[in-house]
Design the sequence.
């Protein structure tokens, strides 16, 4: 299965730091100097003090010994071998960041495909020259046409200048939805604008930055909320059972 939790990438846009610098034990301060971003202190068993943290966009937990002189990085296990760290990271990093990033997706520049009353919203980073984006657009039609899903195409120009000019054309179109449909279906391919206007340049730059923050390296990059409201990402065009996992039962 190629679906994955978005937690590592979500962490790139970090939560506000709650602990103050003067409160850090020496080994935690040493980790901060090495590039680890400390987020929040939490209670841990056996005299340990826990800290949620980020390193290169990945969440982790630091555990400081009772004397404050040593720190451990990793998962804490109990006597039954159960991981006590995962739930803490999900509660304090992953779940809050899912909400933050979902709102950022809402605020990005996208073109809707499907009913505004659809039960499920799915965001997809789309390049107008990407053949896999066109395949995904086509494969999604049963759910879109049935009003079950709305795809929100966050337009980017990752495949070069031609893609950027075509993406700008789609965003500036009088009817972006119809223009997108024409391009993805192949019936009326997007044109290349002579020069990308300032407004569309800003929109594309912001979309590209958001895509990078989410850790997506290519298109289509598909993002959705799972039944527990955790943000998930699927890189590439899903096929077969993957479409059902993403969208639900075929209409």
Sequence:
């Amino acid at each position: 299965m190629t679906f994955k939790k978005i937690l590592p990438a979500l962490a790139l846009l970090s939560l506000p730091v709650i602990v103050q610098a003067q409160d850090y034990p020496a080994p935690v301060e040493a980790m901060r100097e090495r590039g680890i971003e400390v987020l929040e202190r939490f209670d841990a068993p056996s005299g340990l003090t826990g800290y949620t943290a980020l390193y290169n966009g990945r969440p982790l937990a630091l555990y400081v010994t009772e004397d404050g002189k040593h720190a451990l990085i990793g998962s804490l296990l109990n006597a039954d071998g159960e991981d006590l760290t995962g739930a803490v990271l999900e509660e304090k990093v992953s779940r809050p960041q899912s909400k933050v990033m979902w709102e950022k997706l809402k605020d990005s520049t996208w073109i809707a495909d499907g009913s505004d009353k659809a039960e499920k919203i799915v965001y997809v980073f789309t390049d107008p020259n990407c053949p896999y984006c066109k395949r995904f657009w086509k494969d999604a039609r049963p759910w879109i046409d049935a009003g079950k899903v709305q795809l929100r195409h966050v337009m980017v120009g990752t495949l070069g200048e031609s893609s950027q000019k075509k993406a700008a054309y789609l965003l500036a179109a009088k009817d972006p939805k119809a223009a997108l449909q024409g391009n993805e279906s192949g019936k009326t391919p997007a044109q290349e604008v002579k020069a990308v206007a300032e407004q569309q340049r800003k929109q594309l730059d912001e979309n590209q930055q958001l895509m990078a923050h989410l850790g997506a390296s290519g298109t289509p990059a598909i993002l959705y909320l799972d039944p527990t409201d955790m943000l998930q990402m699927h890189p590439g065009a899903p096929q077969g059972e993957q479409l059902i996992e993403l969208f639900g039962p075929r209409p």
Notes: The chain has two domains: 4-103, 109-247.
